[in-house]
Amino acid sequence: MSLKCRYRYLSRHLFRLTAILTLVVLSLVGWTTHVIALPGKPIHPTFTPAATHLTPQDYAMSAPPVLSKDELNSALSQLTGWSVKEGKLHRQFQFASFVEAFGFMTSVALIAEATGHHPEWFNVYNRVTIDLTTHDSGGITTKDVELARKANELAK
Question: Which pLDDT belongs to residue 7?
């Protein structure tokens, strides 16, 4: 099989896998299908996260408390590879290739967007470095621990 044929084969299957994974992740994180009807326009189905119904005030009021030292140590004991660095949960993931690293970031991005909690991260080739903190709360919260747990599951 020539290099060009291999590239086409991998591209086609990677696209299919990405589409399937996207639908699975959307269903797992609670995105629901809504139908929007505009006056004089056809009906269009759209995907909408449940969090879009919240106002900025709702987000501020729902900011979780910062974890105590004991709670944080307990959470860290269950999070393989994570540590606290500069007041943030920190981990570096390494993958076999850039495509795997980027695929991982895409999967985490879908979850982060659906939960309204976004990581600080950095990617170089096959490495992805993630730092997590809840800015609204001023430290590490259960939101960070949960996103770290989901990132670990996706990296397996």
Answer: 62
154: CB partners within 8 A, 6+ apart: 104, 107, 108, 111
Contact (Cβ atoms closer than 8 angstroms) between residue 131 and residue 90: yes
Q: In sequence order, which residues have a C-beta less than 8 Å from that of residue 98 and are 6 or more positions away? A: 125, 126
Quote the pTM value. 0.61
Tell me what pLDDT residue 26 has.
58
Neighbour tally for 14: CB within 10 Å: 12
DSSP codes of every residue in 3-50: HHHHHHHHHHHHHHHHHHHHHHHHHHTT-EEEEE--TTS--EEEEE-G
